[in-house]
Design a protein that fits this description.
This protein is an alpha/beta fold. It has 12 helices and 19 strands. The structure holds guanosine-5'-diphosphate, 6-O-phosphoryl inosine monophosphate (IMO) and magnesium ion. Magnesium ion binds at residues 12-13, 39-41, 298.
Length: 421
Amino acid sequence: MPATVIVGAQWGDEGKGKIVDLLARDSDLVCRYQGGPNAGHTIVVGDETYRIRQIPTGILRGKASAIGAGCVVDPAVLIAEIDELEARGIRTDGLVFVSGNAHLIMPWHVALDGARERRLGRLQIGTTRRGIGPAYADKATRIGIRVQDLVDPKILREKIELAAAEKNVWLERVYELGHFDADEVLTTLLEHAERIRPWIADTSLLVDRTLRDGRRVLFEGGQGTLLDLDHGTYPFVTSSSPIAAGAAVSFGIGPNRIDEVLGVAKAYVTRVGEGPFPSEIEGDAQARVRELGHEFGTVTGRERRCGWLDLVALRFAVRVNGITSLALTKLDVLSAFAEIPVCVRYLLPDGSETEEFPAHQSDFHHCRPVFETLRGWSEELGTNGLPAAAHDFVSFVERVLEAEVRLVGTGAARDRVLALR
Ligand code: GDP
Ligand code: IMO
Ligand code: MG
C-alpha cells in the first residue's frame, strides 16, 4: 500500500520498531509522527542491537527518514543518535529530514519533567523524564521553540531569553532547583544548529511528492493507543497523539491519503509507568512473562508490568485507529504456558459485563477482567507455520476483533516474523 501507518495498539513497546524495519524494506520514505526520545524501538540484527529513539527506524534500511511537525526533538539526542549510527556503519547522509515545525525539547523541559514527577510522589505518572510533557505543554501555550528557530540566531536568542526567564522562576521558586543561563543554552543550541540545519525540510511537501510519484511511505508511531493524550488512559498517558490519525496531523496530509493502518500488539500486554491495567497478571506468572519476554524498558531500564492479552482494549484500538490488519508480536513468549488466559470482557462495578472499552475513567479503574482460557503449545515457534494451538490462538484473536492478523512475531531477531497472508 502506498501509505501505511504502523501504530502501537497497546501501551507502547509492542514491537513497532521490528515491524517498521520489516516493512521499510519495500518503502521509500519512513516517517516518525509524534513523541520524541521517550520512544525506544529495538531492532536485533545478528549480534547487533539497535535501540532507536528519535530518528525513524527506516534509517537502518538506508531509507529516507523524516521527523514530522508533531514530534518533539531533543537536539543533543538526535545528533548523538545519528553519530552512533554512523559509527556503527549505518549511512545517514542525505537521508535525514526534520520538520521545521517540530518543537525542541529544551534542558528546562527535562528538568521540569523530573521535578514534577518527584513533586507528585506516589501520584506520579512514571514518565520517561525526557522532557516530553513540558515540551508539548509549551507548544500548546505557544511559547515553544521550534526546529526552524535554529536557523535564525536573533529569533533564537529572543525565544530562549523569554523562555528561560519564565522557566527559571518555576525551577527556583516552585521546585527549589538551580536555574539555566540563557547565554549558555544559546551557545550550545547554536552548535547543534550547525549539525541540524541541513536536515530541516518541508516534510509535508516531501510526503506529498513521494506519494504523488507513486512511491511508498511508512508512518511509524511512537508509544501506543492507550498512551494517546486524547483517547488513552488519561492522565497516565504521553502528551502526543500516537493514534493513526496523528500521522496525517503531523505530516500535514489529508487523512484520505492513508491507505492502510497496521496495528502492532503483543500476544500479551505490557505497561511501563503508573495507571490502571485490568489484565495485569497476578502471582508468579507475571515475573515469568517478564523474564521470558525480557520486559525491561528500552529507555529507562524499568521493569515493564505484564498482563494477559486484553481483547477489550485491543477492540478499542482497532476502532480508534481504523486498524485494517494486525501484527501480533512475541507469540513465542507464550510457548512456555500450558494454558493462556485472554481477557474478553470487563466486569464493571455495577455488576454488568462489557466487551467495549469503558468511556468513563472510574469504570476502567475499577473493572475486573473476565478471562477465557486458551490451550497452549510447547513447540518452539519457527518460521514455517504455527503449531495447531498457536494457530487457534491467532484465529481466536481474529474472530473476536473481526480483524485479520497479518504478521506474527516468533522471536526478537529481525527475521523472526511469520507472514500469515
Ligand atoms: P517498540 O517500542 O514498540 O518498538 O518495542 P520495544 O523495542 O521497546 O520492545 C519490544 C521488545 O521485544 C524488544 O526487545 C524487541 O527486540 C522484542 N521483540 C520484538 N518482537 C519480538 C518477538 O516476536 N518475539 C520476541 N521474543 N521478542 C520480540
Ligand atoms: P515506545 O515508542 C512504553 C510511557 C511512560 C509513562 C507515560 C508518559 O518505545 O513504545 P512520557 O515520558 O511520554 O511523558 O511518559 O508514557 N511511555 C512509554 N511506554 N513505550 C514507550 O515508547 C513510551 N513512551 C512513553 O512510561 O507511563
Ligand atoms: Mg519501546
